[in-house]
Amino acid sequence: MAHMAEGGSRPVQILERLGQAITAKILRLGFAARFLFYLVLHSGVAFRRFGLTIREIYFAGVLSLIIILVSGLFVGMVLGLQGYETLQRYGSSEALGILVALSLVRELGPVVAGLLFASRAGSAITAEIGLMKATEQIAAMEMMAVDPIARVVAPRFWAGVISMPLLAALFSAMGIFGGYLVAVQLIGVDEGAFWSQMQAAVDVREDILNGVIKSIVFGVAVSWIAVFEGYDAPPTAEGVSGATTRTVVTSSLAILALDFVLTALMFAGGNA
Amino acid sequence: MPPFVSPAWSVASSSSSIVEIDQVSFGYDPARPVLHGINLKIERGSVVGIMGQSGCGKTTLLRIIAGWLRASAGSARVLGENLGDLDEARIFALRRKMGMLFQFGALFTDMSAIENVAFQMREHTDLPEELIQDLALLKLESVGLRGAARLMPSALSGGMARRVALARAIALDPQLMLYDEPFTGLDPIALGVIARLIRRLNDAMGQTSIVVSHDVAECFDIVDYVYFVSAGQIVAHGTPQELRRSGHPFVHQFVAGEPDGPIPFHYPARNYRGDLALNGAHG
Known about the structure:
- Helix content of chain A is 88%, strand content 0%.
- Chain A has 272 residues and is an all-alpha fold.
- In chain A, helix 9 runs antiparallel to helix 10.
- Chain A is globular, with a radius of gyration of 23 Å.
- Chain B is α/β, with parallel strands linked by helices.
- Chain B contains eleven helices and eleven strands.
- Chain B has a domain at 1-85 and 208-257: Rossmann fold (3-Layer(aba) Sandwich).
- Chain B is globular.
- Chain B has helices at 7-10, 58-65, 88-95, 113-124, 129-142, 158-169, 188-205, 216-222, 240-245, 249-256, 272-275, and strands spanning 4-5, 17-26, 35-43, 47-51, 73-78, 81-82, 98-101, 176-180, 208-213, 225-230, 233-238.
- In chain B, 39% of the residues are buried.
- The longest helix of chain B has 18 residues, at 188-205.
- The chains are: A mainly alpha (272), B alpha/beta (283).
């Protein structure tokens, strides 16, 4: 009988746990949304004292340049090789410039730069804010009547939002250069055809602007996740490490999901 | 167990009180209150210790005084303001009249010692940069660390970091100073330096200071009055001299550092024989 009673309550317990887990996630999402609202509302300092934001742009953006530029170069070189391999089968290897450029400015530039930005800068922002909390620096700031969201969080958030499109643009530019090196210098595709076809086929609004919009959206998403996870991290070594991991995982998934949604919207807009 | 109360202090006038805590209760979880029915008054210009074993609620009490936590019952008046009536903006305004030294200093690790001290001046005043630098140097001089002005927190010893944090806390000449375990983890020399600085700065700057600590010897040397907290309640209070003579069992155990007494050595547990299976379980 006891076994039956336990067996009978088990599905209920599982449902309860599932319900609690889902409710907790929704509550946290709501808290994150309120956090973003408060952050945007208290962003005055980040713009009035723009030096604070510039400093964070240096840490989030400038220090990410190496990984972005090197990755962009290699991605562009691989695109050049793979693209040539496919296009030559159809006798249209001169279109390699178009393939490299469109792949980069529409998709790979914003997405790969976003993933790298989340891993390099997002994790650093989370760890820094989390450690400031764990070592009572955030509490000390509050005790000094300084709002840490305005003084610490907002400059980092806006630095991420500003840096991300610039990094994506540099990633794409470097990728195109990598594609050029492989296609023109290594394989011997005609240089004039490579650049002129690219120039003719890439549209500023349809391709470049859409890529820029994507990178801005990814910048907002990654920066929001990074500052929120840092600020909400339990003030322990384990808490900060968990928050850093969550930043990278959640940001990466958010970038991929948002990329699909934005691409679908942009295609729908283009077809309409 | 009746609380030990100093007769002289219990009749003190409230007109000179800078902190008045009246029947304050608080719990992070309503089912498990951390503080219940706390009453205390802190006179202007005094140095008052709040003492008790770890986890007894003394830091929670300090956070209520700082306006960090709101009492779930009772009232807390600090610097003439009822904290329960204040919104966040007014709490922040009130905190400009307070300073706090955190347990491990909580220095901003990306700023040098002088930048840490200048932080509040830059945030809250429009003083010219040269004057801010001079004032920050004056504050560092008052804690004996003008020579360490350009050092980063990672280059400071624990005692030095605590002194820089003290200079930062007094940067805007607060009326009320809060010290959260200021002696933790310090060597005897640094501990003595911090203790003397607390007293000297309090008297020189006309402050009022609240020191949360469980370091009996150093605390008793510098405070005018002590409140003992145990299990979320004030169990005794008086001057250090009165408390040293007190026959109150908790005070006696705490001051003498005895391992057993009203605070038992053993955490509550089941029957010992039962835990060791000595009741015939092994046959």
